[in-house]
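Q: Entry one of two.
A:
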Amino acid sequence: MNEPVVKSVRVECPIHDAFVTFTARIDLWWPMAHRRFPDSVVVMEPWTGGGFFEKAQDGQEARLGKVVRCEPPHALAYTWYPGAIEKPTLVQVSFVQEPGAVLVTVTHAVGESGLGDEWPTRARRFARNWDVVLPAFAALLKSEDSVLP
C-alpha cells in the first residue's frame, strides 16, 4: 500500500502567521538535526515554482524540493527530494482556521515518484521525522520569536 503519511498540529495564532512561519520563516524552526549542513540556512520561496533548499556557510547548497502550489494562507505543496533525488515525493500542507487555533496538516505522499515497494520503508521514516519537525514549528509559534513584524 502507498498510503500517505498524515500528521497534524494545532497552533494558536492567526492563519497568516502560521502560513508565513511555515514558509518564509522556515529557517527559524526547521530542526538543526534535520539539516544536511551544520549552521546552514533553510529557504523556502513561498510561490509556485519557488525553490526549497538548504545553504551551507561555505556556499554548498542542497536542493530539498520545489514549491508546486502556493495558495496563501490556506495551502502549500512541494516536492521533497531528500533520500531520492531522482524520485521526489510530494508534501501537501493545509492551514485551516478553527476557533482560537489553526489546524496545520501535512500529507506526505508518493506523488509522481513511482516509488512502489520503496514507499512503506520511506513512509515510516517520514512519519518519524514529521513527529520531530511539526512540534518544532509549533514551538516557534508559541515563543516570543513568533511575532511577525
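Q: Entry two of two.
A:
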Amino acid sequence: MDKIIFHPEFVTATIYEWHPLLTRTEFKQIVIDSLQFLVKEGHIILYGYCIMNTHIHLIWQVKGKWLSSNVRRDFFKYTAHQFKRKLEKYYPFELFLYKATQGDRTYQFWERHTLYVDVFTPKVFTQKLDYIHDNPVSAGICLLPEEYEFSSAAYYFNGKDLYGFLTHYNG
C-alpha cells in the first residue's frame, strides 16, 4: 500500500541513457503541460522545477486523496507517450535511441530508477530548491538562475511564474 504524502518530495528523473531528448523546446513543453495538468486537476502542488536537456528536477507535494505512486506513474507514462508520438511524427530517425532492452515495452524514455527524496525540513527544502535553480548555471547554460526559462528560479527571484502553476514554499 502506497502512502499518502503530506510533505514535499524532491524528484530527479533522467532520460533513458542520458540522451538529450529535452534539448528541443517542444519536448520540454510536454513536461510543462503535464505539470500544468497535475496542478490544475489538484493532484500536486508544484514548488520548484528545472528541465535540463537530459533530466528534470521537481519539488512537488502530492495532494489530498492522490497516492504518490499513482501521480508518479501517470506523469511519467503520459510524458513518455507524448515523447513517442512526437518522435514518430517529426523525428522517426531518433526513435531507435529509446528502444527498450526489456520485454515489457517497445520504447523507454525515462530511466527506471527515479530519485525521490522526502523533504521534511525547511533547510532541506531550500537546499534542494537552490540545487535545482543552480543546475543550468552549473551546466553553463546561463549566468544567473533566473535567466533560464525552464526553471522556477525566476519565480523565486522576481515573481515571474511563466506557466502559472507554481506555489511559493512560504505560502
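A: Comment on entry two: Helices lie at 25-40, 68-90, 122-138, 153-158. The chain has a mean pLDDT of 94.
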